[in-house]
Amino acid sequence: MATSTQIFDCLIVGAGAAGMMCAIEAGRRGRRVLVVDHARAPGEKIRISGGGRCNFTNTGTSPANFLGRNPRFAASALKRYSQHDFIKRVDQAGIAYHEKTLGQLFCDDSAKQIIRMLTDDMRAAGVTLRLGTGVTSVERVGEGFEAVLSDGTMVRAASVVIATGGKSIPKMGATGWGYDTARRFGLAITETRPALVPLTFEAGLLEQLSSLSGVALDVVAKAQGRDAPPFAEAMLFTHRGLSGPAILQISSYWREGEAITLDMAPGVPVFERLREAKIANGKQATHTALGHIVPRRLAEAVVARHGMGMKLAELADAKLRTLAADIGAWTVKPVGSEGYRTAEVTLGGVDTDGLDQQTMQAKSVPGLYLIGEVVDVTGWLGGYNFQWAWSSGWAAGQSC
Q: Mean per-residue pLDDT for 278-289?
C-alpha cells in the first residue's frame, strides 16, 4: 500500500545508458525527472562492458549496423544524436579514449568514467535518482500515469520511460519487465532471443574438436540462410563451441538448424601454398605445411579429420584441394548458443511499428516512451548498442 505520493513530470525506469541519457536531456529542459532502478548502482552494464573500459560508441555507426524488423527505424535518432555528438560529450568531460579496432572507441582508464559523467550530468540537471528500487505497478490514469514503487511510494508522472533493457546477463538483474509492461499497454513484442553470444556444438563434434579449445585465429564468418553480411574478425574455439568477435557478430543472424561458414585463412590461397610446399619439400608432414597457414593445433585436427596424416608428397593435388576447401570454407552447424547468461544483448523487443521514430513515444499511448535495448533495434558488436542507447535516450529526452 502506498505510503506517500510524489509528483514528477517524467518517471524513467532503468538507470542504464539509455535511461540516464534520457534523464539528463529531460532534466536540462526543466522537467522534474525521477529515475528508478532495482540495482544498487547505476550503469552496471556500462561498468562491465569492454573489459571494464566501455566500448562507448563506434566512429562508423550507421543504420546499416543494426538489426530488427525495421532496421531503418533507428535512422532518425542516430542522425539527430550521432556518435560524433557523444564523442564531443566525452571530450568535454575530459575522458581520454582510444580506437581499438574497426572504429571501436574505449576509455583509456575505466568505464566508471562514463558512468561518473552521466551521474554528474544528471545531478547538474536536477534529476532524482533512486536505486535499489523497483516498480511494482504502473497504470494509465487520466492523461498521465501512476506507479507504485517497491518501497510503497506512489509516483504520479505525466510521462513514463521504459529503459529497462533486455534479458541478457540475468545475473546482473536483467528481466523481461520492460516487455511485460509494454504488452500490458497493448504494444506488440517481436520474438526475443540471445544475441552477440557464443555458439555451441553437439557432444560428438565437441569431442572431435576437443584439442582446439583455446585456439584463436582471424576468420571471415558468415551465417547462412538469410541476408547476413560476412564478418572479418577473430574467432576462438571453446570447450562448448565457438566464440570471439566474429562468432558473436554472426550469432545475431544465425538460427537453429542453420549452418555457418568460416574462412579460416582469409586472403590466403591455401591450395597454392600447400602445392608449393609439396614441390619444395614433399617429405614434410602435411600438418606441418598447413601449420604455416593456420594455428598448428587446427592444422593437425583438420588433417586428422580427413585422414591425411602423411607426407605432402603422398597426397594428390585433389586431396590438397579438399584440405584447402575445408580451411577456406568450413561449413558447420551449431546446435545452439550459450543463451542469455553470456549474451551481450537481446535481439528483438518492442515492435518499432508502434513507436514514433522521432520521439520514441508509443503511438497508441501518449506519454509512454521506450528506449534502448528493450526496443527491437539491435546493433552489431563494437559500440553500436551503446550508441543506440545514447541516441534513443536523447530523442526521448527532447519530448518526455
A: 95
90-to-86, 143, 307, 392 alpha-carbon distances in Å: 6, 37, 56, 18
| Backbone angles phi and psi of 165, in degrees to 5 | 75, -165
Cα separation, 155 vs 276, in Å, equals 75
> Of 151, 50, 39, which is closest to residue 101 (Cα–Cα)?
50
| Distance (Å, whole) CA 56 – CA 63 | 17
Q: Which three cell numbers, joined as nine digits, stand for 380? A: 552489431
CB 56 within 8 A of CB 114: yes
Sign of the alpha-carbon dihedral angle for 321, 204, 300, 257: positive
Could you give the count of Cα atoms lying within 13 Å of 229 in the half-sphere of its Cβ?
Answer: 10
Which H/E stretch holds residue 45?
Answer: helix 44-48
149 torsion bin: left (phi>0), alpha (psi -120 to 50), beta (else)? beta
CA angle, 363 then 160 then 340, to 5° = 90
pLDDT in tens, 126-148: 999 999 999 999 999 999 999 99
The CA–CA distances, whole Å, from 222 to 326, 341, 348 equal 15, 23, 20
Q: How confident is the model at residue 81 (pLDDT cuts 50, 70, 90)?
A: very high
- Alpha carbon distance 90, 71 (integer Å): 27
Query: 226 pLDDT band (50/70/90 cuts)?
Result: low
State the Cα–Cα distance between residues 46 and 48, nearest whole angstrom.
6
What does the alpha-carbon distance between residue 393 and residue 371 come to, in Å, rounded to a whole number?
6
